[in-house]
Each structure stands twice: as structure tokens, then as C-alpha cells.
Amino acid sequence: MKLKEKVAVITGASSGIGKMIADYYAREGAKVAICDINMEGAEKAAEHLRQSGGQAMAVEMDVTNEQAVNKGIDKVAEQWGSIDILMSNAGVQIVHPIEEFPFEQWKKMLAIHLDGAFLTTKACVKHMYKQKSGVLLYMGSVHSHLASPLKAPYVTAKHGLMGFSRVMSKEGAKHGVRSNVICPGFVKTPLVEKQIPEQAKTLGISEEEVVKKVMLGDTVDGQFTTMEDVANVAVFLAGFDGNALTGQSITVSHGWSMN
Ligand code: NAD
């Protein structure tokens, strides 16, 4: 087991990629805090992990709310004694051309992706610095390296996470804390399923064309990345021994981006 008795906080873990990472972490022996705004989903995911012999708790958390984040992280630390891994993963997608992008939706996107990373990091490093160890992981995207039309705030936020993680690798080093970004290509989750008809409508093409041309056109083999692929990378980065691997990003995208 690569993460035996490690305490992992995963945001956005009641669905999609975060839920799969929670599953993989629990199988590797970690105690997993499923943090999500969707408490019903979080309870269900935690219960599923406990039924399978894992250790898990559901934590209600809107990652854009400082009080909720601090309260949630402190609850995990109180119950399990430390915070060893943060997987900042919660995210949403909203697509519009810039001239139609409502300012409120721009702010919401930056808040969930960037404020969420900042607030959860600030709350976790308090515990990690005390114990002189910790792993910070951020869910970036191929859009941390490349741009696509209609996704101004998403691309901005995902690029921003690269800078934030690099700062954390420098600030965290003397406290034994390392920081890295995972950059997946398109993964079939509710976040992506929702985009297919939206993009078809905005671009005036069929849903099949959105998948073949827009989403997978630049991969080496026309394949979706899977939640399992991303979870494997998340286990590798969380379990890596020592501080050599920090300030990096790993792209898992069937060659869509080769950065
Ligand atoms: P998803 O919609 O399946 O899951 C997102 C989760 O985040 C949900 O459980 C949702 O309730 C939670 N969430 C939303 N707002 C929140 C908030 N304010 N506070 C706490 N939780 C909140 O989506 P997913 O595809 O699994 O995406 C997870 C992450 O992976 C996101 O950061 C996304 O940008 C990133 N990502 C996804 C893909 C993809 O193709 N699916 C590709 C690259 C990166």
C-alpha cells in the first residue's frame, strides 16, 4: 500500500475524477475526506468506501467559502490527527464566447478553481508545516498549457494553478511540503457530458463532431482519458518518496498536449 494511514483531503470528491481518486487513495490505505458542496453525494461516496473496507468521511465544503473550508479541514485534522495530502480538485465548466460571457459566471469560475485552491491550501499547510511534511496536488488540465475558444475563465484559472503550485513548491520546500499539478485531457464525467451539447449548439456542429474534432481531434489515438488514468497519476504523485518531484505538472491526455 502506497498511502497507508495518510490523511487525504479531496475536494469535489462526490463525483467524477475526484470520486475515483478517493477510491484509489482508500485502496492504497489512505484515510479519505470526501469534501464537496454536494453533501448527499459526499455521504454516499464515503459510505461506499467504508463498505469496501476503507476509511472515509464526508465533509460539507464550498471551496469558495473561507469559513466552510477552515471548519472542514480542521474537522479532518481533529478527527485523524494530521493532513498529509491535499487534492484540490473541485471544478465546474461554463462555456461562452467572451462577448457573451456574464461577469458573474467569470467570477464564479475563478472563485471555484483559484480561490478554492488558495483557501484549501492555506487551511492545509497550517497542519502540514507543523508536521514538516505534506503533498499538495492541484487538478489542472490540458488547458493549463493550451487554450480553446469559449473557455476564457477555465483556461485562465487552469493556467493560474500552474503558477500557484510553483509558488507553493518554493514556499513549502523548507517545511517538507511539495506541490504538483495533474493535467488531464478530456475525461467522460458529468462536467464533460454537459459540454458536448452546449458546444455543438454554440459551434453549430453535431455532438459527434464535438467529440471527434473538438475534444479528441488532437490526441494521438482519438481516445478519451479515463478517470482511472488520472487516479493512477494522483496515487503516483501522492506516494512519491522524497522532495525531488515538486513544482511540476504531469499531463495525462493521450498526447493531446505534450507539455
Ligand atoms: P464533476 O462535475 O464530475 O465533479 C466536480 C465536483 O466538484 C462535483 O462533485 C461538484 O459537486 C464539486 N464542486 C463544484 N463546485 C464546488 C464547490 N464550490 N465546492 C466544493 N465542491 C464543488 O467534474 P470532473 O470532470 O470530475 O472534474 C473534476 C476536476 O477535474 C475539475 O477541476 C475539472 O476542471 C478537472 N478536469 C476535468 C476534465 C474532464 O475532462 N472531465 C479534464 C481536465 C480537468
Mind explaining what this structure looks like?
The chain has 259 residues and is α/β, with parallel strands linked by helices. The chain has one domain: 3-Layer(aba) Sandwich (Rossmann fold), CATH 3.40.50. It contains eight helices and seven strands, in the order βαβαβαβαβαβαααβ. It has helices at residues 16-27, 39-51, 66-80, 103-131, 152-173, 190-203, 207-215, 227-239; strands at residues 7-11, 31-36, 55-60, 85-88, 134-139, 177-184, 248-252. α1 crosses α8. The longest helix is centred in the middle third of the chain and has 29 residues, at 103-131. The mean pLDDT is 97. It binds nicotinamide-adenine-dinucleotide. Nicotinamide-adenine-dinucleotide (NAD) binds next to α1 and α6.
Could you list the spans in which at least 5 consecutive residues all have pLDDT below 50?
none
Radius of gyration: 18 Å
SSE topology string: EHEHEHEHEHEHHHE
Instruction: Give the strand order, joined by hyphens, for the main sheet.
Output: 3-2-1-4-5-6-7
| Main sheet overview | 7 strands, parallel
Instruction: Please state the average pLDDT score.
Output: 97
Helix segment tally? 8
Structural class determined from secondary elements: alpha/beta
Number of strand elements: 7
Q: Roughly how much helix do the residues carry, as a percent range? A: 40-55%
Distance separating the two termini: 30 Å
In the CATH hierarchy, the third-tier topology is known as: Rossmann fold
- As an assembly, this protein is single chain
Content of β-strand: 15-25%
The CATH superfamily is known as NAD(P)-binding Rossmann-like Domain
Architecture per CATH nomenclature, i.e. the level-2 architecture: 3-Layer(aba) Sandwich
CATH level 1 name? Alpha Beta
Spatial shape: globular
Number of domains: 1
Bound molecules: nicotinamide-adenine-dinucleotide
